[in-house]
Design brief:
mainly alpha
């Protein structure tokens, strides 16, 4: 999409472009803010009473009070604050809080200094002994990060363009890192515990700072300083195994997409480049569900008529994603994206149905259940004209699912007739549909091992009898006449074996 006045998406800065995105984002955002508030209350209660004194006495033996530190900070000049890099020893030196500094220029200088102090990176390796000074420096960095978050949240005049390069440097140094190799080769969220990042005590506040920075900073300044490399590094982090980190990334990227129109096309292409290896190279990725949530919100804002680029995205990305082996981990988000496209342009329904039939699972029963659930959603949005194009392959597939040996698949396929739209369409096109599904219904009624499936099958048979008794009897007669007897089947098999033997001689 272009950054002009005629945008393709009706995206707004308040994040209300799609209900699904908002529900999921608000849930994760509330939980993250809950943890943040708990940490904030804990740190505020401890730091307000004895933090300053402890820093002054324990950290490098500086015996000054907070007010004395503020006075020395003002008197010593700006030469220390203008250093490009700081060390752990600088973290062990007590600094006044931003609230205590009254002068605006001095407060901005202190703000930049604390941002640079937060660029110092620490290891969080469990089990290794940590020396006291290093542990104190870790806690001091965490305190500074929390102070920075509160400062930009509560202060109305914190923003200055001079601070933006330092802010992005601090965010980049803390977040943009090489992710560890996966703990599980075939991670299943229903069975395996997620792998939480040990450095989350620092990362959480960096992400919260980043989120509030993107929400409150001037859009023009964000566009000027955030470049494509920064966005690519950010999108790469979606492969993190920590779900808390992916939730923050989802909120922040969605906010950047909504506020910065020139970045929209690039962000969509970058997300597509992550999805292509998942589809065509069977590469596992941890952030597919979060990326699809963002895409669902984006699709919801597409303007009509849809551009060719967006239709190709549906055909080349979303539909082929149904064949991915770990579909269950993101199927809800994928189905939402697909149905959004059909709501925008109902003529795409036949393409969606054709793609689903092409990639219909033949081995995994659990995956087939997901397909049947999505199929019902798609059929509800599909017009009669579109359904008529795929009526034969569609109901052949449904017939195959009806007589599945897996009772849940058979039940789910039979439950399709509880949907009024599907039942009405079946009634209107019964002359084409009944001959296709009658063999499956007859097989279920006479041979299926599950009693529930047999009773459901009998209910469908009764519906067709009440609908058109003459048609039902005619189809039953044709099926019985066309069905070969055991003797005829044996003769046919013998004839085929005889031909094979002649070919081998």
């Amino acid at each position: 999409m272009k950054g002009g006045g005629s945008s393709d998406e009706a995206m707004t800065d308040n994040g209300n472009s799609a209900s699904m995105m908002n529900n999921n984002s608000s849930g994760s955002s509330n939980s993250n803010r809950g943890r943040l508030n708990n940490s904030s209350n804990h740190l505020n209660s401890s730091s307000s009473s004895n933090s300053t004194a402890m820093k002054a006495s324990a950290l490098h033996g500086h015996g000054h009070s907070t007010s004395a530190a503020a006075a020395s900070h003002t008197a010593s000049g700006d030469h220390e604050d203008e250093k490009d890099e700081y060390s752990m020893d600088d973290l062990l030196t007590a600094e006044p809080t931003l609230r205590e500094v009254q002068n605006a220029d001095e407060r901005k200088t202190l703000f930049i200094k604390k941002l640079k102090l937060c660029c110092i990176i620490f290891d969080f390796i469990a089990g290794e002994p940590v020396e006291q000074n290093r542990q104190l420096a870790k806690e001091m960095k965490r305190t500074y990060l929390l102070e920075l978050v509160e400062y930009i949240s509560q202060s109305k005049h914190w923003f200055s363009e001079d601070c933006v390069p330092v802010i992005l440097e601090m965010i980049g140094k803390n977040l943009f890192r090489s992710l560890p190799p996966p703990v599980y080769d075939d991670f299943d969220p229903e069975e395996d515990e997620p792998n939480f990042d040990p450095s989350w005590p620092h990362l959480q506040f960096v992400y919260e700072f980043f989120h509030r920075f993107v929400m409150t900073a001037d859009v023009k300044v964000i566009r000027r300083y955030i470049d494509k490399r920064f966005l690519l590094n950010m999108i790469d982090l979606f492969n993190s195994e920590d779900p808390r980190e992916r939730d923050y990334l989802k909120m922040i990227l969605h906010r950047i997409y909504g506020r910065c129109m020139p970045f929209r096309s690039f962000i969509r292409k970058a997300m597509n480049n992550i999805l292509y290896p998942v589809i065509y190279l069977n590469v596992r990725h941890n952030g597919i569900s979060e990326l699809l949530e963002i895409l669902g919100s984006i699709i919801n804002g597409f303007a009509l008529p849809l551009k060719e680029e967006h239709i190709l995205f549906l055909r080349n990305v979303l539909i082929p994603m149904h064949k991915v082996s770990f579909l269950s981990q993101f199927h809800a988000q994928l189905a939402y994206c697909v149905t959004q496209f059909i709501q925008k342009d109902p003529s795409l329904a036949s393409s969606v149905l054709g793609g689903m039939l092409k990639f219909w699972p033949s081995v995994s029963c659990q995956k087939e259940l997901l397909f049947l659930n999505e199929l019902e959603e798609v059929l509800e949005l599909t017009g009669t004209q579109q359904l008529e194009r795929v009526i034969e392959p569609l109901f052949m597939r449904i017939a195959h699912s009806i007589c599945s040996n897996h009772f849940q698949v058979a039940e789910r396929a039979l439950f399709l007739w509880n949907n009024d739209i599907i039942a009405t369409f079946t009634s209107d096109h019964r002359k084409k549909i009944l001959p296709i599904i009658y063999p499956a219904l007859q097989k279920n009624y006479s041979k299926h091992w599950n009693s529930t499936v047999s009773s459901l099958t009998l209910n469908i048979i009764r519906i067709f009898k009440e609908m058109d008794k003459e048609l039902y009897e005619e189809v039953a007669r044709n099926y019985k006449n066309g069905k070969s007897s055991p003797t005829v089947k044996k003769q046919s098999r013998d004839l085929k074996w005889k031909k094979i033997q002649e070919m081998t001689q």
